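lol ok so funny story. i was supposed to be doing the assay writeup but got distracted and ended up predicting the structure for this chain instead. priorities right. anyway since i did it might as well share w the group, maybe its usefull for someone
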Amino acid sequence: MKVAFHTLGCKVNQYETEAMAGQFRKAGFEVVPEEERADCYVINSCTVTNIADRKTRQFIRRAKATNPDALVCVTGCYSQVEPETVWNMPEADIVTGTGNKNDLVSMVLQAMNSGERIKDVLPYDALCEYRDRGIITSMEGRVRAFIKIEEGCDRFCAYCLIPYARGRVRSRDPKEIVEEARTLISKGFREIVLTGINTALYGTEEGFKEKFGLADSDETGIEIIIHMLDKLPGDFRIRLSSLEPTVVDRDYVKRLMKYRKLTPHLHLSIQSGSDHVLRSMGRRYTAEDYLKIVKVLRDHDEGYGVTTDIIVGFPGETEDDFLDSLEMCTKAEFLKVHAFKYSRRKGTRAYDMDDQVPGPVKNQRSEKLMEKGEEVRKTFLSKEIGRTRTILVEEAEGGYLTGYTENYVRTYVKCPDGADPESLIGQFIKVVMKDLYLDGMTAEPEE
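and the output, tada:
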């Protein structure tokens, strides 16, 4: 039997798809590309925006059209918060949510035997335990591996449905995280990326340290994990996928700078440069607080790569508020700005707020923000010229090697004379950064 996966949304979903694929393989399924004809299709859904919801529905229909006799299974955030909407689609044979992806293989086998549709979505109150999906031993990529360390969020920002889709904060056993990292490193992965629904909340739930025998530690949960991983043998690096300024401050971030394997790159979502909008969003910091964190990072490394998310058109956002976001881009000198138009999500506080911003205004602001993001990206990269960085080679094509530096700059390097490009995939190479090119920079191997 063949199974194919389609994953929408975040790195957590990517990780969970890998975990589910491993479970299906153990059950005797062959995992095939999603465009192939399969006996079972699994859509791992996202519900961050209305567009994500629509894409999920499109892929459900596309899967059934590819093979009308196949089982189409829908899991993830969209089916968690809108189970009835998905269940009412005749193409969906199995509907489950975020809390019982672990049970999907047994549901598929049950449906295949009975010929009946299955809906099994845990209620929000049941999303209270970190359910073990086993140790991931492989990833689709060849050099970088994601490890999920945390589930859930308790921030309830005014625009966001994710806390409702993912439930309460619960943290994974530190020993299991370390074991998974050790396994992946032994298989040749050179970069370990720690991810979660709100990674900064790892270990913040009551009783975490006592539960895992860490009561004597004065470190935060994230510090505990990075400390443990930093001591592992092997030539690899650690990347935090993101931290939330709603959780961390400059002192917290400063303590992370001591770990030698932690990369100088962080995705730090600001969402708006306006204090007025941040308050309306329910974000627990000011623009000045955010810039203080950025200063700590840049004091550690002038080229510390900071990427971010910014929402335009949040209810009540004025033109001056939007200009504050543009100014924040200039002040923070982001490596990458992910621009999002506010998406009205039923069930969130922002859904019923007054002063909803018209679509054409959101479109205009989004375009301006993307232009500003490109401007500050070029400014940041220009300052990298002449600096020595280390890339992890991920691809080799046409005599060139491509990979990311420790501060997350995509880099293109000519393969050294006489070297086999394929043999360099998964290797660290010291380079001198040269010029801006496409989505990153060119570089030359350090002599």
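The CA atoms of residues 19 and 136 lie 6 Å apart. The first helix runs from residue 11 to 26.
back to the writeup now i swear
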